[in-house]
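Methods — Computational structure assignment.
A single polypeptide chain was analysed. Its primary sequence is given first, followed by the predicted tertiary structure written as structure tokens.
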Amino acid sequence: MTAIWQASEDRLANSHLTRFIAWLADRGHAFDGYRPLWDWSVQDVPAFWQAIWDYFDIIADGDCQQVMTDDPMPRTRWFTGTRLNYAEHVLRHERNGDPERTMLHHGSELRLMGTISWAEVGGAVRKLATRLRAMGIGPGDTVVAYMPNIPETVIAKLATTAIGATWSSAAPEFGAQTVIDRFSQIAPKLVFAVNGYRYSGKDFDRTGDLTRIMEALPTAQHLVMLNYQPTARHAPDWAGDMLAWPDMLTGPDIAPEGFEYTRVASDHPLWVLFSSGTTGLPKPIVHGHHGIVLEHYKSAAFHFEIPQDGALFFYSTTGWMVWNTLMWGPLMNGRAVLYDGHPAHPDASLLWRIADETRTTTLGVSPTYLQIVRGQGIVPNSKYALEALQSVMLVGSPATPEVFDWVLSAVKPDVWPTSQSGGTEFCSGILAGSPLLPTHAGEIQAPALGTDARALDESGKSVVNQEGELVITQAMPSMPLFFWGDDNFTRYTSSYFETYPGVWHHGDRVLFNDHGGSFVLGRSDATLNRFGVRIGSAEIYRTMEAMPEVADSLVVCVEEPGGGYYMPLFVQLPNGKRLTDDLIAQIRQRLKTERSPRHVPDQIIAAPAIPMTLTGKKMEVPVRKLLLGQPLAKVASRDATRNPDVLDWFADFATAHIAKRDAS
């Protein structure tokens, strides 16, 4: 296989990983390249993570008792006996250089592009954190935000975590019920929110949704409002303690040396991310300060290779785990680029213009977005110099060889195109990249350091050059501490450890080749990949179940040739009812407003019935496999189906859909 990209000698010599390997050599660990280093990182797991701790000079109190406890996943704990704080590490570089240098670039459809310095961010965080402490908020309390990707949200997150409280966020594009499904599980004490936002040139007032949200959160004692959208109402109808964002930042300046971060133990909750499953409420995934700090340093330096004063620009919303990784730029004494709005409004050259203006070094985009760029005939390097750009990260969904080739031809011939794959569960990568390795089109270069990722067949045997289930066989520091409210790890274990006991089962189909590269072939469950963001079918079903016009429904998402996705929603209607244009419009509107624009399907189809197993479960995975072209006899047993004749209808639909797609 021919490599399409290899790092120059200068880039290799100056890479973070080259310096780390030299540092290890001085301590008696000699490695000739990435593969031997990865072998050591999974063979001597405690030694590897101790090296990460030492190399990045982790700020902590206490003496380490155990780098890694003997408890099996998911109960493994790390660096017991020590206490540290995530926000302290993000802001540590405020004093390492000119405090007036840029930390955040930011812009939105409501704000022109601008910058905020390290001193401004750090000063605001300290003021807000001090105010939160004065309000009685601290360790054991949860703070949530219904806010977009703007500097105020970053400041709120850092202030919350600086005092040891637990953070969670949702994007304002989420409808009220989607937010309630998340936040009601974690009992927030304080809510940060905006009154609305602008997307694709349209203004959205969120105060009505916010009224519903606050009424559904009985533990919330305070609401901090930011009037972000000028035409929306200033506040919801809520009788509790309501405060204005500017008032939270009043008072004298607090110098860095005059503020004390709350350092916490390795089992202390940092934030709650939500990974929508296919049944029930979204899973509230809890991460810890230790695991995230270690994992984010490792990934920012060795897999994204963000240079000092480099800029990381991921297009993201606050409801996606990628937003939590934007601080990788500041962790590396660099910058982060924030943008709130439609990525292709007024056209798809927008993100390239922002990357050029902010001197972005690492740009993260989804292959789906690049399809829009290509479809509009945009060639970025014909409009923008992109002089600082070093890497284009293809994330959120598998990238085809054609996408890799397009990046090199249309963006920059010496840019590093790399596809990487991770998950909300780790808030980081599982299959990653390194400039020490060659890049092959369509391939993910290697498992991430410290990540013992493999493919297992149905018998649980590790396989190479054969499709299998992606698993992780040893614990990692950023694995979830627990699921919020999940006594005895019951839901956690059933989600990831039932298929292969003692082994993390991630839910992706993957193929590893002889030289360690890999190809993610899609989900092995019914999770939906929507524009690079994973959402759960259960959220769509909850809206459908509230509609008397729909008797039942089934939604799937399949990967299409060329890197696209197709998400149809099949609806079973009550006897005598028809699927009219008005009903289709009503379904789309309900999903858009109650959930989010990402939950709106590509097509709504009337089905005679929804196929069910004998135990009453919707047969999402078999329907998905039919739409991927697999034969009916291979994807489902008629004997295990409550209504087997319906499978024939879905098989015929899949055949017709594939024929029409291939002919177009």
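Note: The mean pLDDT is 93.
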